[in-house]
Write a structure and sequence with these properties.
tt1808, chain A, 5 helices, three-stranded antiparallel β-sheet, 13 strands, six-stranded mixed β-sheet
């Protein structure tokens, strides 16, 4: 009997364990990422390096839409800076993460030395978005959102396109689950920002 391999095997992240044999510094990880720019790379708090394959074109198109919406609000509001999925941040627990979209208050961003901002800025974004594609494991994304929450994120959205749900992660360690919402509010973290989900679902 032949084992049946998952049809989406190419979308499963590859995990490489270096620690404790090799301890990759932040600078070494940054240079490693520069040598492998076609692959999205993260590091978890235990030092494992994760290689994430590219998302499907449809998911990326939806992700672009939410980044545009966040970008328009960010420019109009002027109090912070926005980021797409390519930027990496070193969280207080040592992990290096790249959310699908993020926002940081401008005063906190500018307080980081320029040389550190050029690599993996040592900060946890105050606001993050993760957009689930059909090949993403929901529990893995929930763990990432909890990690952001534990490391200082004030508001986070996990948008599950597969089940048409949104999970709201707040700084008081609560998680709210919404069924097929039409919009999401930036609340008091991003006042006035309303994400229209009609083009995301």
């Amino acid at each position: 009997m032949t084992a049946q391999l998952p049809t989406n095997l190419e979308n499963i992240p590859m995990v490489l364990k270096f620690h404790p044999v090799i301890t990759m510094t932040d600078d070494q990880l940054y240079e490693f990422c520069q040598l492998n720019q076609d692959t999205r790379i993260e590091r978890n708090a235990t030092g494992e390096v994760l290689f994430m394959p590219p998302t499907g074109s449809e998911t990326d198109e939806r992700n672009f839409d939410l980044i545009v919406q966040l970008g328009i609000w960010t420019k109009q509001d002027g109090s912070g800076v926005g980021f797409g999925s390519s930027g990496g941040f070193r969280l207080p627990n040592g992990a290096v993460r790249s959310p699908d979209a993020a926002w940081i208050k401008k005063t906190k961003w500018l307080a980081i030395p320029l040389e550190q901002r050029k690599k993996f800025a040592p900060i946890c974004p105050e606001f993050v978005i993760e957009l689930r594609s059909e090949s993403d494991n929901l529990n893995t994304l929930k763990s990432k959102m909890s990690e952001y929450q534990e490391n200082g994120t004030l508001l986070g959205w996990l948008i599950d396109r597969v089940n048409r749900k949104a999970y709201i992660y707040r700084s008081d360690n609560t998680v709210e689950e919404l069924n097929h919402p039409s919009t999401l509010s930036g609340e008091d973290i991003l006042p006035g920002f309303i994400l229209d989900l009609s083009t995301i679902w």
